[in-house]
């Protein structure tokens, strides 16, 4: 990760995308163990079907973690000032998620030069699954 030059960054600039492997059951089980979120709808196909879903699906917080990774591959986590998301779609098994971000504003606050970003996850069909924004200090 290189140090960013605030003056060289332009509104509209994009972050390097983060492409992830297809979501599978092992990934969901590992995230459940790591996060402590053992909600059965994410790991038990019978439970998911009783809940009206065709199969298990990814934790929303897994997608948020991926967006956090997108940001921290661009800047040090200590530069993160704000990070929020909305869950707008379900990430199903087999989805190949790509995380993207774009600079939408440059501003100063609390004596710091900052960037506001829009971020999202989308599946291989281009459907947004999680959308959000972040503010980083440069």
Automatic annotation (TrEMBL):
Record-linked SUPFAM superfamilies: Thioesterase/thiol ester dehydrase-isomerase
Domain MaoC-like per the UniProt entry, residue ranges: 22-110
Top-level taxon: Bacteria
UniProt cross-references to InterPro entries, sorted A to Z: HotDog_dom_sf (IPR029069), MaoC-like_dom (IPR002539)
Pfam family, one: MaoC_dehydratas
Protein name per Swiss-Prot or TrEMBL: Acyl dehydratase
Species in which this protein is naturally found: Paraburkholderia eburnea
């Amino acid at each position: 990760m290189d140090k960013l030059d605030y003056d060289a960054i332009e509104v509209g600039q994009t972050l390097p995308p983060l492409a992830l492997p297809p979501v599978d059951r092992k990934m969901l089980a590992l995230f459940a163990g790591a996060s402590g979120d053992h909600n059965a709808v994410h790991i038990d196909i019978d439970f998911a079907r009783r809940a009206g879903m065709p199969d298990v699906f990814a934790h929303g917080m897994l997608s948020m973690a991926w967006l956090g990774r997108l940001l921290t591959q661009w800047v040090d986590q200590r530069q993160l000032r704000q990070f929020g998301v909305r869950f707008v779609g379900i990430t199903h098994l087999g989805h190949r998620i790509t995380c993207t971000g774009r600079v939408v504003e440059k501003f100063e606050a609390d004596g710091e030069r900052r960037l506001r970003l829009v971020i999202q996850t989308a599946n291989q069909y281009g459907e947004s699954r999680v959308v959000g924004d972040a503010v980083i200090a440069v």
